[in-house]
């Protein structure tokens, strides 16, 4: 069926300093700016083989800290050794009470409420903790400013929720298969709901990763978050949709390896998918809709349908099963349905 197309700057010299542990307890003679200290850290992590996206996150998190320091403690920007636990705690309070979600973020609507979520704050603190430990170990600072700073506590951490059956139906009913972009989005959603792939893994999948005989998709170690290759079964119906989409991609754009392309023949990206879902959220008047929700929906429904958590851990590529447990958020309706189905009292009531 034919479908319609709607159309840094690095320091001039790296000045790493090697000192003994005893020397590092004394004041530092050489001053490092925040930017210089960041670049030394980044160079070390690149040498360790960290992924570009992780490096990008490090830079982004420090940009938030730099923004705070420029107003409150500009001396730290010029001398990283001036960073103290007291300054970091002031930064935490700023994030908790004053910073508004998505403020300054391009193409994102600023949320009216003040203060970031506990999860977001702790994510930024983990980055800073890693950096402060590195700077101290390398002799860039005379102290580890994060050593005594604790993560922010929360009474109940809100996990990313999955989509309800009603919401999924509403989303699919709103998609027009006659338009290439919406048909592509539909296939992508089906693939994520069927496999639990991460958004980045799903949008970048190549046709060579699919085995349409055994009905599986291979996630190579080069793109897997935990650097472990894994093979995930797919439903025959989803495999058929993937092949149908790829045949259309070939007709329009030649012989690309990637399955999911935009209307201009360029690789579709997770960020583009997020933006499209955000527009759909507004159009359908949904409270929340973003790519990761499809992965969470797969995880929750996998367990509700009788799957075991150890297999789910392998499919989702979680190094620690605690992550898998946190990943699955059951609604009260889910809990009630499972209780009605599995309560041991049932066998006694039948007597």
TrEMBL record:
The keyword DNA-binding applies. Residues 1-11 have a biased composition (Basic and acidic residues). Keywords: DNA recombination, DNA-binding. Residues 32-136 form the Core-binding (CB) domain. Residues 1-20 are annotated as: Disordered. The keyword Amino-acid biosynthesis does not apply. SUPFAM superfamilies: DNA breaking-rejoining enzymes (SSF56349). This is Site-specific tyrosine recombinase. It comes from Bacillus mojavensis. The gene is codV.
